[in-house]
């Protein structure tokens, strides 16, 4: 049986060029970048070259890039270390109700420590209202962290306008750009972003490598203690093969390639909608109506069939999709994103699936998926009707 992967918001396959780059680094430049001998200097050169590529991708300075194990570490570092550093200035932090759990769980911890965390609501498109943010900002607000693109429904926040509002306050502005990076153009200077998190494995790079951009004017305490790597901001020997692979993945994403990907993914979305409509499937797109979505994610309410049934049967048919965030896929908790958008009593919460396209997705894959989904939905609805 052929298996078709449509869960690219969870992770992506490593690009062949990235594998080649990493293999070269593992065999040739294996030195410790902190060592002063020839092998260490070779590794440090690769580190510097890669850091420059990472920085240029968001219009940042090289020294503002801190290498991490990925966005989860980066998000934790921003939230917990900002709280530690600025607690004497204020204890209010603003975020949204639909953030990734690597933001929400540190927030819950800070609430237990006496911090005032404001969770901004979102509308039916999964986007905050700027008026709510403006009303929540106070002189005691030390941090605003709002994701750039949502991992479950693909909504894109008005980052430029958020940056302007936060810049006028005493707070620092952080955005988790994990899902948007590689698809949308990002400029930390233009959007007045103070800190930004990214993971490589979302753009066909390796896992367990990412970066945190921190504006040079901000000095966070080190999150990991040990050596003096990353200019004393993140201890631990740098993973040179992974860093080089990350840089290669970024180099592959030229402006023309990103534009082509956006166009292809928009075409796939339209293809899904048209086929399902033609087949008489009763469904709605979660978050429909937003003009500016992160284009690879399509979240649909398939009316009358549970998420669990859809996921299980599609997997048996050879299709990898998701019921929501990959970080919660192993439990039966309902999607906090859909609850925030539609309420906990909405049938959407228990009857929705997420499809996410990638560079290896084809029109044939999408057509086959729609045929399988149609068969599963019709079979289950007929079974339910027979029991009625």
TrEMBL record:
Any one GO molecular function term: lyase activity
InterPro entries documented for this protein: Aminotrans_V_dom, Cysteine_dSase, PyrdxlP-dep_Trfase, PyrdxlP-dep_Trfase_major, PyrdxlP-dep_Trfase_small
Aminotransferase class V domain boundaries: 4-369
Cofactor entry: pyridoxal 5'-phosphate
A matching Pfam family: Aminotran_5
Keyword Nuclease annotated: no
Name of the protein this chain belongs to: Cysteine desulfurase (Aminotransferase, class V)
EC number, UniProt record: 4.4.1.-
Organism for this UniProt entry: Latilactobacillus sakei subsp. sakei (strain 23K)
Gene3D superfamilies found in the cross-reference section: 1.10.260.50, Aspartate Aminotransferase, domain 1 (3.90.1150.10), Type I PLP-dependent aspartate aminotransferase-like (Major domain) (3.40.640.10)
PANTHER family (alphabetical): CYSTEINE DESULFURASE, CYSTEINE DESULFURYLASE FAMILY MEMBER
Catalyzed reactions: (sulfur carrier)-H + L-cysteine = (sulfur carrier)-SH + L-alanine
This protein's UniProt keywords: Iron, Iron-sulfur, Lyase, Metal-binding, Pyridoxal phosphate, Transferase
Family as reported in the entry's similarity comment: Belongs to the class-V pyridoxal-phosphate-dependent aminotransferase family. NifS/IscS subfamily.
SUPFAM superfamilies hit by this protein: PLP-dependent transferases
């Amino acid at each position: 049986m052929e298996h078709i992967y449509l869960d690219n918001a969870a992770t992506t396959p490593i690009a062949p060029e990235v594998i080649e780059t990493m293999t070269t680094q593992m065999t040739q430049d294996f030195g410790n970048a902190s060592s002063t001998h020839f092998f260490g200097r070779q590794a440090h050169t690769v580190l510097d070259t890669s850091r420059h590529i990472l920085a240029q991708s968001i219009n940042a300075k090289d020294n503002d890039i801190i290498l991490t194990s990925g966005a989860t570490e980066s998000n934790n570092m921003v939230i917990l270390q900002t709280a530690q550093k600025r607690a004497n200035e204020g204890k209010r932090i603003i975020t949204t109700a639909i953030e990734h759990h690597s933001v929400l769980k540190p927030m819950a911890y800070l609430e237990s420590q006496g911090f005032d965390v404001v969770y901004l609501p979102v509308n039916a498109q999964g986007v905050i209202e700027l008026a709510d943010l403006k009303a929540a900002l106070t002189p005691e607000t030390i941090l605003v962290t709002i994701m750039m693109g949502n991992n479950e429904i693909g909504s894109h926040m008005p980052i430029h306008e958020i940056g302007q509002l936060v810049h006028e306050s005493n707070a620092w502005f952080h955005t988790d750009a994990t899902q948007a990076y590689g698809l949308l153009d990002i400029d930390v200077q233009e959007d007045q972003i103070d800190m930004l998190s990214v993971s490589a494995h979302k753009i066909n790079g390796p896992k367990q490598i990412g970066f945190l951009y921190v504006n040079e004017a901000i000095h966070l305490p080190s999150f990991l203690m040990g050596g003096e790597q990353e200019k004393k901001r993140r201890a631990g020997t740098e993973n040179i093969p992974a860093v080089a692979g990350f840089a290669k993945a970024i180099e592959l994403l030229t402006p023309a390639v990103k534009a082509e990907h956006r166009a292809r993914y928009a075409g796939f979305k339209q293809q899904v909608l048209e086929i399902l409509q033609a087949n008489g499937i009763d469904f709605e797109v979660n978050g429909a109506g937003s003009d500016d979505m992160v284009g690879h994610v399509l979240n649909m309410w398939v009316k009358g069939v549970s998420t669990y049934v859809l996921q299980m049967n599609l997997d048996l048919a050879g299709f990898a999709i998701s019921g929501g965030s990959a970080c919660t896929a192993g439990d039966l908790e309902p999607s906090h994103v859909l609850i925030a958008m539609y309420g906990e009593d909405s049938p959407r919460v228990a009857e929705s699936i997420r499809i996410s396209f990638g560079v290896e997705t084809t029109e044939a894959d999408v057509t086959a998926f729609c045929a399988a989904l149609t068969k599963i939905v019709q079979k289950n609805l007929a079974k339910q009707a027979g029991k009625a």
